């Protein structure tokens, strides 16, 4: 069972439909009581960092999520802004992040991008997997995923980085520390590779 955190930000229906095709049950959590007995958590996110953090803070679920992730070690997967919220802070806003990982979120340096269209980083790109992890099992080398973002996750402890992507330089596009996983790309828009990755997370 995958519990998808609904705090008013993120394309929840796409995840529900994808997991339905994979015959993997899901549950939507809109309050802390919905999080009871969660076995795995998916934290989606799109848009502005501060707005997402404000929505999560006001949902009443933040403290329960901290308890589940940090004390009970429930596996969690953050997607796009959901991953960025796991950091301590972001250059996109002023609010504190969840602080689940020793990292900050920074804006991509446009001066280092060769493409005519610079930001956002939008479209298909490769992820170079630099650590063996269950999240990327059964995927080819350097699998492609769909990206849409202008900010990236900067790990203070690079051992947490399990995948990198090149766009005006290499940036961390996938992280893992113990039960905490994060991906900058959108698996729900990444066809077969996204399905494989989300199925892998369900097995963790």
Automatic annotation (TrEMBL):
What are the EC numbers?
Answer: 4.3.2.10, 3.5.1.2
Instruction: Report one GO cellular component.
Output: cytoplasm
Q: Which UniProt keywords apply?
A: Amino-acid biosynthesis, Cytoplasm, Glutamine amidotransferase, Histidine biosynthesis, Hydrolase, Lyase, Transferase
Top-rank taxon of the source lineage equals: Bacteria
Q: Name one GO biological process term.
A: L-histidine biosynthetic process
Where is it predominantly found? Answer: cytoplasm
Q: Name one GO molecular function term.
A: glutaminase activity
Pathway given in the UniProt record: Amino-acid biosynthesis; L-histidine biosynthesis; L-histidine from 5-phospho-alpha-D-ribose 1-diphosphate: step 5/9
Which InterPro entries does this chain map to?
Class_I_gatase-like, GATASE, Imidazole-glycPsynth_HisH
A Pfam family for this UniProt protein?
A: GATase
Job description of the protein: IGPS catalyzes the conversion of PRFAR and glutamine to IGP, AICAR and glutamate. The HisH subunit catalyzes the hydrolysis of glutamine to glutamate and ammonia as part of the synthesis of IGP and AICAR. The resulting ammonia molecule is channeled to the active site of HisF.
Q: What is its quaternary makeup?
A: Heterodimer of HisH and HisF.
- Name this polypeptide is given: Imidazole glycerol phosphate synthase subunit HisH
Name the source organism. Chryseobacterium piscicola
> Which gene carries the instructions for this protein?
hisH
């Amino acid at each position: 069972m995958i519990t998808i955190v609904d705090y008013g930000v993120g394309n929840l229906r796409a995840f529900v439909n994808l997991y339905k095709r994979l015959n993997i049950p899901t549950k939507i959590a809109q309050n802390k009581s919905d999080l009871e007995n969660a076995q795995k958590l998916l934290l989606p996110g799109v848009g502005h960092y501060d707005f997402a953090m404000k929505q999560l803070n006001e949902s009443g679920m933040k403290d329960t999520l901290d308890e589940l992730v940090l004390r009970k070690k429930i596996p969690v997967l953050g997607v796009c802004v959901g991953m960025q919220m796991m950091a301590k802070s972001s250059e996109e806003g002023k609010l504190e992040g969840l602080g689940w990982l020793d990292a900050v979120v920074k804006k991509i340096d446009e001066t280092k991008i060769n493409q005519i269209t610079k930001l956002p980083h939008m479209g298909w790109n490769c992820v170079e997997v630099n650590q063996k992890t269950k999240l990327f099992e059964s995927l080819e080398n350097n699998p492609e995923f769909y990206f849409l973002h202008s900010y990236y996750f900067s790990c203070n402890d690079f051992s947490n980085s399990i995948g990198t992507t090149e766009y005006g330089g290499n940036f961390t596009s996938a992280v893992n520390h113990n039960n905490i996983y994060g991906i900058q790309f959108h698996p729900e828009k990444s066809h077969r590779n996204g399905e494989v990755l989300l199925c892998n997370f369900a097995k963790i």
